[in-house]
Design brief:
alpha+beta; Alpha-Beta Plaits; 4-stranded antiparallel β-sheet; two-stranded antiparallel ribbon; 3 helices; 6 strands; flat; YCII-related domain-containing protein; Dimeric_a/b-barrel
Length: 118
């Protein structure tokens, strides 16, 4: 079955400034989403704050720039099995989002190669 990544983007500044009760509710809604879709859910994780991320470009390593207010950055993902992109979009539409959006991308699943004979 085809796989799709549902890449969750959120405005970290707005998230951090939001009330704790709102953040707690959204986290619980994400757990409920994962439970509801456990039959198609392959994986899902929240990224740590972008304050701890680095960029690697052309062999150079540098701290990632801090997100600007109003700019949504990747903050987590769900990897799902879906019949097609329309099915994946219907699943993504159910992700609770108050501070951003979800990007749906097809995944090319690479099968491991057999080790060469020695």
């Amino acid at each position: 079955m085809p796989q799709f990544v549902l890449l969750v983007h959120e405005d970290e500044v707005a998230w951090s400034a939001g009330e704790q009760a709102v953040r707690d509710r959204i986290v619980e809604q994400h757990y409920a989403f994962a439970e509801k879709h456990r039959d198609v859910l392959v994986a899902g994780n929240e990224f740590q704050s972008t304050a701890v991320s680095v960029d690697v470009r052309g062999g150079e390593v540098a701290p990632s720039p801090a997100p600007a207010p109003g700019v949504a950055v990747p903050c987590g993902y769900f990897l799902v099995n879906a019949d097609d992109i329309d099915h994946a979009v219907r699943i993504a539409e159910q992700i609770p989002m108050e501070f951003g959006y979800v990007q749906v991308r097809p995944v090319q699943v690479w099968e491991p190669r057999e080790a060469p004979a020695v």
